[in-house]
Amino acid sequence: MIEELFQIEKDAYKDSIIHRLDARVKIVLCFAAIIALVAVPYSTMIYTVGVLFFIFVAALWLCTNLPVKNFVQRIIAIVPLWGIIILFQIFLKNKYYTEYHVIYSLPLGISVYAESVEFAFILFVKFIVCISFIILLSSTTKMQDLLDGGRRMGLPAEFALALGMMIRYLFVFGYMYRKIKQTLETRCFDPFDRRLSYRYRLRQLGYTIGTMFIRSYEQGERVFVSMLCRGYGKHMHLFLKKKDLTGTEWGFLATSLAFIIATPMCVWITQFSLF
Amino acid sequence: MHIPDAFIPIWQGAIYWIIALVFIAISLKWAKNEMSEEKLPMVAVLAAGIFALQSFNLPVSMGTSGHLVGGALAAIVLGSPLAAIFIMTLVLIVQGVLFGDGGITVMGANIINMGVIGGFVGFYSFRGLMVAIRNMPVAAFTAAWLACLIPALACAVEMYFAGTFPLMEGLVAMGIYHAIIGFIEGFVTVAAIYLIISVRPDLIDTGIKTPKGIAAP
Q1: Are the beta carbons of B200 and A167 separated by less than 8 Å?
Q2: What is the CATH number of the domain that holds B155?
Q3: Which of A250, B5, B127, B197 has the fewest CB atoms nearer than 10 Å to its CB?
Q4: What is the dihedral of CA A123, A128, A129, A131, to 10 degrees?
Q5: Which residue is closest to B42 within chain A, CA to CA?
């Protein structure tokens, strides 16, 4: 994950209409879309909603001037683990269906059910479209802008301060992680090398992690001293300039929210009227 | 263990968020009252460090790998389960919003599992065992193992309530996998604490004496 950090920030520093939007607009848009998608019941109506939402997020991505390859690479990095759990769904029964029809039988009494395949696909659609919005948000908004957006929307000061510092030091630790990894490789240490005893490998990794823990703590101490030099105190508050949304941003936000709210409702009404 | 969006229905996600917010508010209150001004930057930087620590893949078996959660380690070193909640909340926000690792609507559940359960289980099992057996490696190992296993079981129960994974299969699958990962988490936590006690004993307030003859790698 830490390897992605640099690519994400690199993407976020590019320029486009979407990049220039206020972070609050993108946060609200992204979260609203995810909530709307998750709120859609586990039914086949998610196919239509999912496709429409995906077209929406794809259109926004095209406006970012970022390569589609970056989007696909990030999807591929996220999907595997939960993709396996989604795949497992085809063998399982759940509470959302009352009847199950076997479409394929495997040894050891394992069966693939038509309803479970449908459920797995519903989960997959929801999962992929939700992830797409997160990728859009993080690839087009600098981390500091996300934090400022969060603060303007009421994120508690203690969290904002801690989160702000954490974000800054993510990159320091990203480089540190790379260095330690390279150092281990230079010494021909591979945690997956079976020729080394398992106990030895774990001890070395434990020491490495302990070293990193101490380094981060000591970095924290240095940061504190630097902050004291700059007038930091317990009752200090970070200054954040007031910033209003422009008319265009309001317009974009209102239109997008209308789409996000209206789409599932229209699909639901259409399906309801069909029955 | 990072549940993504769509795996838990929205109303259940809202309930987990409400519960998580209660604990976040308690941890914030703790941060305001108990955390000295010196500790805030440290906790923030430490959160970044834990985020990086989670990137180290550790070999499990049959070619699979896992990574450290770090909740127990943070709680033990910082001397409070609330510190673990605070740190894990920061880490989960960054992971969820920037990397899509863990969902937005289910972030409450993830904070409960890894921050609240992981932090409390890790901290109190460590303290309890230290009082009972006075053996740091055993106490830290067991605490870290439990802090990995129990949140995973909680995750399986949440998925069962959500109707996205059956209970027994979920408990068995998550239980076995995280019992193995927990073994590694335990071993690595012991090694990390041992190293910290050796190099910077002032950082840990657990009543543990500095071991002699421990060399850093």
Answers
A1: no
A2: 1.10.1760.20
A3: A250
A4: 120
A5: A220
